[in-house]
From TrEMBL:
Keywords (A to Z) from UniProt: Membrane, Transmembrane, Transmembrane helix
Record's subcellular location: Membrane
Pfam family, one: Rer1
Transmembrane region(s): 61-80, 116-134, 140-157
Descriptive protein name: Protein RER1
Species the sequence originates in: Citrus clementina (Clementine)
Main location: membrane
GO biological process: protein retention in ER lumen; retrograde vesicle-mediated transport, Golgi to endoplasmic reticulum
Taxonomic classification: Eukaryota, Viridiplantae, Streptophyta, Embryophyta, Tracheophyta
Length: 194
């Protein structure tokens, strides 16, 4: 005998299955995109271009764009910062090397590149969807917001650069370091062998 909630449960089951299938498929394609950073960032650049074109055509949603800019600035700070900040964390042996004689430790970001990309892409998609609702189109004088954001960006980056200089780290690596090894005496002498 079925109870009064049986109809509601049978109606929810297909929705839950569809949601589970969609989530699994989305995660599959997200995992497949991981080793392709250039293509991912090109896709994000396309999403950003579509968003900027939408804002330009509508001539509004400057508050949404300002909020998006602040959010991206916050993500950028996380991307450029070390996972263990020597200024705030107790030195437990996992800190950045501060002297030339210290052991090399690779730079580990607080916000990894993939999560940085994913958060920015989601932010552009959400901001794009917000442009379809007039409640978010608050009338403002956009040049003031732009000037304020530029000042905030310069001050934040100055502070981040000073932090990098103080603790001597560079958040970027340009290629993998290669071990060349010691050259043998025979190969450096220049004499050909028979």
């Amino acid at each position: 005998m079925e109870g009064p909630g049986a109809d509601a449960a049978s109606a929810v089951a297909p929705i839950a299955k569809w949601r589970s299938d969609f989530s699994r498929m989305f995660q599959y394609y997200l995992d497949r995109s991981t080793p392709h950073p250039l293509q991912r960032w090109i896709g994000t650049l396309a999403a950003a271009s579509i968003y900027l074109l939408r804002v330009y055509c509508v001539q509004g949603f400057y508050i949404v764009t300002y909020g998006l800019g602040i959010y991206i600035l916050n993500l950028l700070i996380g991307f450029l910062s070390p996972k263990i900040d020597p200024e705030f964390e107790a030195l437990d042996g996992a800190s950045l090397p501060t002297k030339g004689s210290d052991e090399f430790r690779p730079f580990i970001r607080r916000l990894p590149e993939f999560k940085f990309w994913y958060a920015i892409t989601k932010a552009f998609c959400v901001a794009f969807l917000m442009t379809f609702f007039s409640i978010f189109d608050v009338p403002v004088f956009w040049p003031i917001l732009l000037c304020y954001w530029i000042v905030l960006f310069v001050l934040t980056m100055k502070r981040q650069m000073m932090h990098m200089i103080k603790y001597r780290y560079i958040p970027f690596s340009f290629g993998k370091q290669k071990y060349t090894g010691k050259k043998s005496a025979a190969s450096t002498s220049g004499s050909p062998r028979d």
